[in-house]
């Protein structure tokens, strides 16, 4: 075998994957306590942090780990559970928005204190301020290269948000 298995690139991606998997496992139990999957939590967070607390379905797919059809299934399920609602786009009949509901915000409010504790204990608290700044800059650089749609819809659109 001619490939150097000690190549530091393998170590870098391995460490990243192990850290991500470890954090994901820590978060999963806490999400389950609040009757949410990790994907549902991600959708609620993306919507809550977006202008007007809504995103076009295609932008939501671009910002999450879901395909367009996957985001449709998740939003449909969350709509049935009352956590989000769909809203038609006034300027494009082919598009629709996912909008976080008051029940979705309440569920997020229930989850966030424990989630923040876990983030602090197992992620942020492991790093000094300069290390965290460097890590965030590096992650943004990588994210922008591999997922240029990750910030789609994250700025105010020309269409005003519907009244909640």
UniProtKB/TrEMBL annotation:
Residues 1-144 form the HTH marR-type domain. InterPro entries: HTH_MarR-typ (IPR000835), MarR/SlyA-like (IPR039422), WH-like_DNA-bd_sf (IPR036388), WH_DNA-bd_sf (IPR036390). PANTHER family: MARR FAMILY REGULATORY PROTEIN (PTHR33164:SF99), TRANSCRIPTIONAL REGULATOR, MARR FAMILY (PTHR33164). This is HTH marR-type domain-containing protein. The lineage of its organism: Bacteria, Bacillati, Actinomycetota, Actinomycetes, Micromonosporales.
């Amino acid at each position: 075998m001619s490939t150097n298995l000690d190549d530091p690139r393998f170590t870098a991606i391995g460490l990243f994957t192990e850290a991500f998997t470890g954090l994901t496992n820590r978060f999963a139990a806490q999400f389950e306590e609040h009757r949410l999957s990790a994907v549902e939590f991600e959708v609620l967070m993306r919507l809550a942090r977006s202008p007007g607390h809504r995103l076009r379905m295609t932008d939501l797919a671009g910002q999450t780990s879901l395909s367009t059809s996957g985001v449709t299934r998740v939003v449909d399920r969350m709509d049935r559970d009352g956590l989000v609602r769909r809203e038609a786009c006034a300027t494009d009949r082919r598009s629709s928005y996912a909008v976080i509901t008051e029940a979705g915000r309440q569920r997020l409010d229930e989850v966030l204190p424990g989630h923040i504790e876990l983030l602090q204990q197992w992620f942020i608290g492991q790093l000094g301020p300069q290390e965290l700044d460097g890590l965030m800059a590096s992650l943004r650089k990588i994210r922008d290269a591999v997922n240029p749609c990750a910030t789609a819809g994250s700025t105010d659109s020309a269409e005003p948000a519907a009244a909640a």
